[in-house]
Amino acid sequence: MKRSTILRSGAVAFGALVLASAGTATAFADATDYGSGDVDVNVDVTSTDTGTLALTVAADSTNLSEVTSSDVAYREFTGTLPEVTVTDTRSSDSIESGAYWYVLGSASDFTGTTDSSNTISSTYLGWSPSLVTDDGEATVTPGDDVSSVADDSSSTGLQDQELLSLTLDSAAAVDSDLAGVYTATAGLDLKIPATTTADTYTSVITLSLFEDIAG
Amino acid sequence: MKTFLARLAVVIFAAAALSLSAAGAALADTDDSGSVTWAVSPSDGTAADDRTSVELELDAGGTATDYMIVSNYSDAAVTFTTYGADGYFTDTGRFNMLSGSVESTDAGSWISIQDTVTVDAGGSAVVPFTVTVPDNATPGDHLAGVAAAITTAGSGNVGVESRVGFRVTVRVTGELATTLSSVVTGVDYTGSINPFETGSLTVGYTVTNTGNTRVAVTPTVDVAGVFGLGATQAVGDVIAELAPGETRSGTVTISGAIPALFYTATLTATPSAVADDVPIADDAAPVTATGAGAAIPWSQAVTLLIAAAFVFGFWWDRRRTRLRTQRLVEAARAEARESVAEGKAPSRALASAHPAQR
Q: At B74, is the secondary structure helix, strand, or coil?
């Protein structure tokens, strides 16, 4: 083939590509996203004592047992958080507008029972929350998975993490298919360096239920 | 080392067994079904009231008493641990209070409340608590919370403390200061491979409450490229509440940003009151911070380079063809001159090219 022919067909192909690009650019031109700003509308509804927002915990402690770690530099222990249920027996019209609740989890550092100067930072403890009651409508959402700092160096571990929170406000959630009963659990995963000093370590996971008003 | 590891494993299994029996015993005392259900809310001293949190305004050295009601919906009487602790907002803006094992240093330490309360099955108990503001307390908002918890710290290798509580906000009278500081932490442009498509610009920022009041913050980001190209504004997620001393980070992403070589981002953090009845300082003013980042039009540059290469290619090809033609013409002329000089007739080939001469 002649050099000029190659050159010419190359230029034609390139031109076609450029035109195609321009074409798709228009096709995919989307609305500019200016971030989201929430506007809260407040309506005061007089509350009458017709129910309550309660917390139920299935058991009061859990245990981590060793599993085979895929990485010889680390040892891994897993367990399951006891089931946590939030029950809202209030009627939707008695709940203050904009009210929403959430359950947070924070773990203390693990300390040795033989020698209390032995510690394992709570950053090595991760969890993966999941819903036990799920209406498939995302009325409530489980919190994000949290990794051990051994797997994700930017992880702060189990500190102020959400186990369960409302997507809707409390009043709308009560009227959903879940009818005010929301249960969650979480897999616990402690991944620590294999060089950790031997001891019996204990930690306390604090689960907190709070209700707040938006706006 | 290996024996140490083996011992650790054994010890952990032993602890598991130990905590299981301990938990069984503890639960037998409280509830046969093994679960505890309870609710906590502010109270007027006799029953639950309309409040979802307690807000107090006190002078330094002042005191106030308020009430918490604990309702037990379990099948048996339960003893709850009750305490007050410092409150704060998490990175996602949720209110939380320090765990029971952590010592409070601010408003949490001002709350005195009984250590435990035993509530009968199906019953409720009103628990009074007193907030005593120290004489040297600084003016402004101090956050705390009170909660009723069931806790088994130390009985297994992971104890679970579960608590239900509410906020207690103490505003100490005095001069209110509502000030913010902000930082633009990053201006990152992500261009498209398609030269005709715009990219996206992500601006990261932090806002810190340097004053002494709780405050709501509206972050607004203005961006502009060189010569003001692609100037636009975006509003970040409104921070519903930021406690004194706290820092919150956020990002805004502006899609459809042109690769304007260089972007300057100006963050304006505008303070406002968290609620009508929680005023902020009169002189509260927005603060700004700036940052910058490159937005190089790589795909456009590559496209132009390729286009330029083709233009050069055509020019070069044409020049070469012209030179070769010139050379051939020159050669033919030289040959013709030579033939004339030798006195020969023009070649037959040339003559036969003109049928008219036949």
A: coil
